Amino acid sequence: MTQRGHGSLAVYFGAVFAFAVTMVGTTMPTPLYPLYRGLFGFSELTITVIFAVYAVGVMAALIITGRWSDQLGRRPLLFAGLAVSALSDLVFWNAGGLGMILFGRVLSGISAGIFTGTATVALIELAPERIKRWGTFFATSANMGGLGLGPMFAGALAEYLPAPLVLPYVLHFLLALLAFVCVWRAPETVKRPDKVRLKLQRLALPREVRAVFVPAGIAAFAGFMVCGFFTAVAPAFLGEELGYDNHLVIGFVAGILFIASTIGQLLQSNMPSGRRLPIGCGILLAGVLSIAFGLGNEMLSAIITGVLIAGFGHGVAFRAGLGAVADASPADERASVVSTFFIVAYVAISFPVIGVGLAAASWGLKAASLSFSGIVAILCCLALVLLLRGGGTQPRHASAVRE
Q: How far apart are CA 243 and CA 362, in angstroms?
């Protein structure tokens, strides 16, 4: 395999940039949903469906292409993910109705699904020796940080510059072209086998993993439900219930959850290794309760506080849960189990918000949002009970969670 540029910090952080750019593109539409709604007359249920098809694209790409980079190499898959991301930009800025928006969201999901697994592994493999131990953190930071910057980026452009439904996608398209150059400069880390075998990513849950997977999966499900809610429903709540129509404010509220999650993933290494997952669940629960208080009393300050707390807890619980699940998995089934864990997360980020859209049509957005918060709180409590009974899913090897 080629080692062109290996060990260069500039080349490495170029790859980090490419990962972040791809994830930025997946959440850019969040603060723009009110504009689409006003232009095309979408209902809140339609908005949640638009968001959910993104997650369907992610899951399809994870299952179909999850193992392809081991055969074809990391760079071809990264190029493919960037190409699909750029294509989604073209679709969005020419969107004339629901069909093209749905198509654009599916493309965004496919790009994220291709990148999530491939880029994470690539950044760990590419990390120069001097920052090798930070490889996983840079990968997760590019992922979650990109998701958080997307709404802020699009919200600021929509609020202060013309063509709010065109300019964000044009600029992101240009960033994707720059990301192509960054990936081109990065070395390949995989030697392609003589006979390429492209297989679907198998999902698995061996018996010995279930005791760890169930509470970790419930915690991940609860955390990603909150992510789904704030990227799909929060714009409508802020506008209809609180009267905020500033796109930057909407993008900021939606984005800070992911930024806080990134901080939580960084700082969780300072917590006791066997207690990180229950600590994360407890913090997530506190954040959800604060969000519910803010929703019920229509207090933006309480909502933002809750989002920051919930995001931090999500980051702690997600990284700790993923590490514990990977550590408990047999070596020959680890990739399959981790893929199953990600599928649980993306089911949580998509389909529950459709339920919020349906409930909002019958009960109103405020009542539906409060009910949603209650369900998340119950899931957090269930995960905490299971974790405390099981000793917090103490990993067999501390390094599994540290990295």
A: 21
Question: With contact defined as beta carbons under 8 Å apart, do 337 and 324 qualify?
Answer: no
Written as one letter, the residue type at 148 is G
Whether 263 and 324 have beta carbons less than 8 Å apart is answered as no
- Rounded to whole angstroms, how far apart are CA atoms 55 and 73? 25
H or E element at residue 254:
helix 247-267
Burial class (CB in 10 A: 0-12, 13-18, 19+), 398: middle
Burial class, 74, CB count within 10 angstroms (exposed 0-12 / middle 13-18 / buried 19+):
buried
pLDDT per residue as tens digits for the range 344-372: 888 888 778 888 888 888 888 889 889 99
Q: What is the pTM of this model?
A: 0.85
Pairwise CA distance, residues 298 & 83, whole Å: 42
Q: How many CB atoms lie within 10 A of CB 341?
A: 22
pLDDT digits (tens, 9 = 90+) for 198-233: 888 777 788 888 888 999 999 999 999 998 888 878
Structure tokens at 199: 């297989």
